[in-house]
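#onboarding

Welcome to the new folks! Below is a worked example of what a typical request in this channel looks like: someone posts a single protein sequence, and someone else replies with the predicted structure as tokens. Don't worry about understanding the tokens yet, we'll cover that in week two.

Example request:
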Amino acid sequence: MNDNQYPPEPPNVILEDMKIKIYDEYFEHDLEYEKIVKLLKNKNSMTLNSIDLIDYFEENNILDNSSFIEYLKKKDSIFEKIYNDHKNTNTFRLMNKLDSMCQCWLMYLYH
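Example response:
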């Protein structure tokens, strides 16, 4: 690097971090979100059967992926409300958190 170069080049570590962030936010998360949208629009979901959505969330550990959760909250206002509502208590008290969240999502969409 030339000492007189302006503006200075960012370190490679920062560039790699930026590439990862861009990939996560704009490509990987978009693909994942499209899969969820398809599940939300399938016949089971439209009849308030949340099993496909629950299975997908469990298989892909969606609730453990904080960057994707943030993406979902930005992308889908219903999910954001449901996620925030479920921080302290489940709407459907006899269900676990994930089941309750998925059922609420479908209820908002189709009930």
